[in-house]
Design brief:
calcium channel activity, transmembrane, endocytosis, calcium, calcium transport
């Protein structure tokens, strides 16, 4: 496969047309991809800056910097594979991640962003680099929640719930079918 074929394959992927992705606004999809791309570059840069903690013998910040650079690389492979076209399996990994549900990406990005905070909490570079990856995970989590119902649907659902019409969605109704109300008999009388 030639270099131009690899580039055209990486650039032509439409974004994995899943049924669940149809109700997500286009601006939110671009926000997640753009923040992931820019945030991963910033995370790699500030991870390298954190690695300078070896000069002050700050080993936890060194480990946090290495973790942050690795997390930035993984996010950039998933979000912008055209930036890493020189690695053979980037296209395959990126396509596999595009077919996964949004909550999988959200969980992965949040899981990748949290450990540097525990290792080097008071560093600005940790907050900015891993914070942008964390924000990307938040956006993908919001995309996984889906579209909010219209105001008319929410009003009719609330009115039906208040009136007791239709199926109830109260948590008590589905937990126990034979529940009894709790009664208070009063304080015990002592003689």
């Amino acid at each position: 496969m030639s270099l131009t074929d690899k580039i055209s394959m990486l650039m032509s992927r439409p974004g994995g047309d899943n049924a669940q992705k149809d109700d997500v606004p286009t601006w939110m999809r671009y926000a997640g991809r753009g923040l992931g791309t820019v945030g991963s570059f910033i995370a790699i840069f500030f991870g390298l800056f954190n690695c300078l903690g070896i000069l002050t013998l700050d080993v936890p910040c060194l480990i946090a910097g290495i973790w942050q650079m690795l997390a930035g690389f993984i996010v950039i492979v998933c979000e912008a594979p055209c930036c890493c076209f020189f690695i053979d399996y980037v296209g395959t990994l990126s396509q596999k991640m595009e077919t996964r549900p949004y909550w999988n990406k959200a969980a992965m990005y949040l899981g990748l962003a949290v450990p540097p905070f525990f290792l080097c909490f008071f560093s600005f570079s940790t907050w900015l680099g891993s914070g942008l990856i964390f924000a990307t995970g938040i956006i993908y989590g919001m995309m996984a929640l889906g579209k909010k119902a219209s105001i008319e649907d929410m009003r009719s659902s609330a009115a039906n719930l208040e009136a007791g019409v239709g199926p109830t969605t109260a948590p008590r109704a589905t937990l126990v079918t034979n529940e009894q109300p709790v009664s208070f008999t009063g304080t015990p009388v002592t003689k």
